[in-house]
Amino acid sequence: MKKIALTASAVMLLSGPASADALFSFGLNFALGGGGGFGATAGLWSTDQTDSIAGGLTGTYYLDTGLSGIGANVGYVSDGWVGSFGYDFLRAEPTLGLNIANTVED
Fold first, then answer.
1. Are the C-beta atoms of residues 60 and 68 closer than 8 Å to each other?
2. Which of 24, 29, 85, 93 is in the most buried spot, having the most CB atoms within 10 Å?
3. Cβ 45 vs Cβ 82: under 8 Å
4. Are 86 and 104 within 8 A, CB to CB?
5. Based on the number of CB atoms within 10 Å of its own CB, is 98 exposed (0-12), middle (13-18) or buried (19 or more)?
């Protein structure tokens, strides 16, 4: 139940009014918990403006285990990339990510 509440809260934060367009990204994700592991990830972020903080939802395929993950993240949007810290709900582990994205200058 706790995971559902956290996911719903993340979605509500991301769906609020925004002055910029959403941003789609591809990249790598690293799970920091006991299971660890690298994954290929796709993300949807709340803003495409560079030099800003964004909320994001990610889907990850972990290359080492073949498992999938769904996460909520906070990221920094820079010129052409997004760096993020988040939580993968399916793996129950914190994550770090680096994603390539088509950002927009302010």
1. yes
2. 29
3. yes
4. no
5. middle
Q: Considering the entire predicted model, what is its pTM? A: 0.77
Q: What pLDDT, in 10s, does the model give residues 2-20?
A: 665 555 555 555 555 545 6
Q: Give residues with Cβ within 8 angstroms of 1, minimum separation 6.
A: none
Say whether pLDDT at 58 is over 60: yes
Contact call for residues 65 and 31 (beta carbons, < 8 A): no
For tokens 């080492």, name the residue.
64
Task: Return the structure tokens found at 85.
Answer: 């810290």
Q: Which amino acid is at 42?
A: A
Of 94, 87, 97, the closest CA to residue 5 belongs to: 87
Per-residue exposure over 10-23, b if at least 16 CB sit within 10 Å of its own CB, e if not: beeebeeeeebeeb
Q: Cβ distance 94 to 32 under 8 Å?
A: yes
> Which two three-digit tokens encode residue 80?
């052409």
* pLDDT value of position 105: 79
Tell me, what amino acid is at 29?
N
